[in-house]
Design a protein that fits this description.
The chain is of the alpha+beta class. The chain has 16 helices and 29 strands. The chain is flat and about 110 Å long. It is an enzyme of class 4 (lyase).
Length: 773
């Protein structure tokens, strides 16, 4: 063979790469460079214009801020200067002319200064004078307090616009004493100009602030002169300002109370005309609340607040002449000032897109040539990535130190299943030994990164589901609500969380299925069925270990546990049982301290007995629920069960000597009652609107009343159980105290919720009862 006929495979491969780079890489690179240059120029132009617009915006807002500050100073000026002038007139005027001076000065100011609402004058003997505008016309009204104590009267005299008397009126003063008012005491104690906190007059809708000052007349009598300013005029001024297209200004104090600004009347009505409650609500005014928070963190000056994908420019500035240190907030959308930049940027972007489109068309044919190859390559890379990640997850599961420890919850299993299958929720369920109960050992919600468990489902409600699991084959259902095998499971367990698709992987033991793995909305389950099968084998081994541990623990407990004292579990009227039924002997009613009583409280929402529902339906629902729960109490050997309105109270271990099995009986009853309530409410198409709480501790018991006498219990354990129910994090959950957890942790599954402060008990831990081990 001639040497020129020999083909070097490496050289052929090198030629292919060069041809590819020449025919595909160079055009693609050119298109990318064109796009990058155009995008870079557009972004640079947009940023420069935007920064210039924002700089101009800050300058405009600063000038607006200075203007408003000047106006507010002018607004409050009559109070600052007027009190000084009035004090000088009162100190140098004869006593007989004090009231004339007050009326003349006040009338003149009221006629010429619109923001002044009224004037007060009071002395140290309790005399009081008031002058204000006549609310029914354009004249004035003077009020004088005559007399003291219960017989005191307010004498009113009305004048027209030319100061001619119109009429007089009088009404009881109701023990009014000006010397007890904040404006009087503040001025006398401070010895200088005193500003009161703003207050509302609900009848007129006026917000008033009072400036007062004390003085002494020629006769030695001490006076307090006060000017009342209406904040409504200041609100009208702020409303009239034009700040951009949608901006506005408001005045608040250092604590965030709204003093003047937009929609003051609505805010006042919502606060019940209480100025202390007139704060900026983050739900109603999120931008204003964000601006105030930025001021509290960063101080005075310009800030930027973002809300609902929009930027807002804000400025916080101090206002003079008030003791309350008011703060002026200016808020305006950034788009009001930088809108032209955005329009220019969009136009540049449009032109750039046209050029990019033309450049892209040149490379379309080249992209289509390698499209299929790239698709196959991506699929291979995806399978390789999943395979590699699967190996990592398996190594992590295998390295878990307590994987086969019966007392460990091994939450890593559900987390790994949800991660590998990209499922919204992954659950591990165990078929109990009676073959008619399915217990949720653990469920992991990937959306909320939370574990839960302890749910029990009965074969009576899920007969088709149990039959599907018993076949031992995996099932993948796209819509669990419409499949007869999973419809009831969807209604009882999935509908509340909004998931639709369901994948079932049976957990097979030596004698058949002993449980099932559920994956909800698992988008990647078709790629990892073998991984789910391996996890099912691990779960089966854990079930065997837990069973052996539970059998050994039960045998040890039966050998060492003394018989409980309460052998006769009676149910009767009253909170507990009628007198004489505690031990079967009439009249032999123990009272005193019971050292270890287990108490459970179940609280139901008003939704169950809503007045919008049919009365007969509600009564039938409540009757069925009560009968079912009372049957559970009998089966679990509880001492008492009583429904009190929307609460159900259960008691176990009511004996003179501690009953070691009371807490366990109560926990078993809690799990059974929760499952019964879930089933009944689901059949009635109601959400599981109930919460449960359990505590164990000493309580006192005794007979109350006379005819008939009722045996009652009281103590911290009863109140603590009710607090556990009211504070349960989610509906349908069982929250228990640390004492219950320490007693039952070897036989039941718990999740720690955290530390909480409980009145009269201090800081304590609480736990969520999930199920039996």
């Amino acid at each position: 063979m001639a040497t020129d006929e020999i083909v070097d495979p490496a050289a052929a491969r090198s030629d292919q790469v060069r041809r590819f780079l020449l025919h595909v890489g160079v055009p693609v690179l050119g298109v990318v460079l064109v796009i990058a240059v155009i995008v870079g120029i557009g972004l640079h132009s947009y940023r420069m214009i935007r920064n210039g617009a924002l700089g101009l915006t800050h300058d405009l807002l600063t000038s607006q801020q200075n203007y408003i500050a000047q106006e507010v100073g002018d607004y409050l000026g009559p109070a600052s200067a007027g009190t000084v002038i009035a004090r000088d007139m009162l100190e140098h005027g004869p006593e007989a002319a004090v009231q004339k001076i007050f009326n003349s000065y006040g009338g003149s100011m009221l006629r010429h200064v619109p923001q002044i609402h009224s004037f007060y004058l009071a002395d140290n003997d309790g005399h009081f004078n008031l002058i204000e505008r006549d609310p029914a016309g354009k004249g004035l009204e003077t009020t004088e307090l005559s007399g003291l104590g219960a017989g005191a009267q307010f004498a009113h005299q009305f004048f027209d616009a030319q100061s001619k008397p119109l009429r007089t009126e009088s009404n009881p003063a109701a023990n009014y004493d000006p010397r007890t008012r904040p404006w009087y005491t503040g001025a006398t104690q401070s010895g200088q100009l005193f500003w009161t906190a703003p207050y509302l007059i609900a009848q007129t809708g006026q917000m008033i602030i009072t400036a007062s000052i004390s003085c002494q007349g020629l006769n030695g009598r001490k006076y307090v002169f006060a000017i009342n300013l209406s904040m409504n005029e200041l609100t009208s001024f702020l409303d009239s300002l034009k700040i951009g297209q949608n901006g506005h200004a408001l005045i608040v104090d250092q604590d965030g109370h709204l003093l003047a600004g937009r929609r003051m009347a609505d805010v006042a009505k919502q606060a019940g005309w209480d100025p202390a409650k007139m704060t900026i609500d983050p739900k109603t005014y999120p931008v204003l609340a964000g601006a105030f928070d930025a001021y509290r963190v960063e101080g005075y000056g310009p800030h930027t607040v973002r809300n609902r994908n929009r930027n807002f420019v804000t400025i916080a500035a101090a206002l003079p002449a008030t003791a309350q240190k008011w703060v002026l907030l200016l808020v305006a959308p950034e788009s009001d000032f930088a809108g032209f930049a955005m329009v220019d940027g969009r136009q540049n972007l449009l032109f750039s897109l046209l050029i990019v489109l033309l450049a892209t068309l040149l490379g379309v044919l080249l992209f289509r040539q390698g499209r299929r190859t790239e698709h196959v390559t991506r699929q291979l890379e995806r399978f390789q990535a999943i395979s590699g990640y699967e190996s990592q997850v398996l190594q992590k599961v295998a390295a878990y130190p307590d994987l086969f420890n019966p007392t460990d919850e091994a939450l890593i299993l559900t987390r790994s299943l949800a991660d590998m299958a990209s499922a919204r929720r992954a659950g591990i369920w165990r078929i109990m030994h009676d073959g008619a109960t399915l217990l949720c050992v653990d469920t992991y919600d990937s959306h909320h990164d939370a574990h839960s468990g302890g749910f029990e489902l009965s074969r009576n409600d899920l007969n088709a589901f149990f039959d599907a699991v018993a076949h031992g084959d995996a099932i993948n259902v796209d819509d669990a609500g419409n499949d007869p095998r999973t419809a009831n499971f969807y209604r009882l367990f999935m509908r509340t969380f909004g998931s639709r698709a369901l994948y079932l992987a049976p957990v097979v033991g030596a004698s058949g299925p002993v449980g099932v793995i559920t994956l909800e909305d698992a988008s990647r389950v078709g790629l990892v069925p073998h991984f789910v099968t391996m996890m099912a084998g691990v779960v089966a081994a854990r079930f065997v270990a837990q069973h052996d541990s539970a059998v050994a623990a039960a045998a040890e407990e039966l050998a060492s546990e003394p018989p409980p004292e309460e052998a006769n579990h009676a149910f009767g009227d009253g909170f507990l049982v009628p007198p004489g039924s505690l031990d079967g002997t009439a009249g032999a009613v123990p009272d005193g301290l019971f050292p270890a009583v287990a108490v459970m409280v179940i609280t139901f929402s008003d939704m169950i007995t809503s007045p919008h529902r049919d009365t007969a339906t509600v009564l039938a629902l409540v009757e069925g629920l009560a009968a079912q729960l009372q049957g559970v109490a009998h089966q679990c050997g509880l001492y008492s069960i009583k429904m009190l309105g929307h609460r159900l109270v259960c008691v176990a271990g009511c004996s003179r000597t501690p009953d070691p099995g009371a807490a366990e009986r109560m926990a078993n009853a809690a799990l059974a009652m929760r499952e019964a309530s879930l089933s009944i409410l689901a059949k009635a198409d109601l959400d599981p609107v109930f919460r449960m709480g359990i505590d164990v501790g000493p309580v006192f018991g005794g007979l109350l009343g006379r005819d008939p006498q009722v045996f009652n219990l009281w103590g911290d354990a009863i109140g603590m159980a009710e607090m556990m129910a009211q504070g349960a994090p989610d509906v349908g959950t069982i929250q228990v105290t640390e004492e219950v957890y320490l007693t039952l942790r070897q036989r039941f599954l718990f999740r720690e919720r955290g530390r909480f402060f409980v009145p009269q008990a201090g800081t304590t831990r609480t736990y969520i009862l999930a199920g039996r081990r």
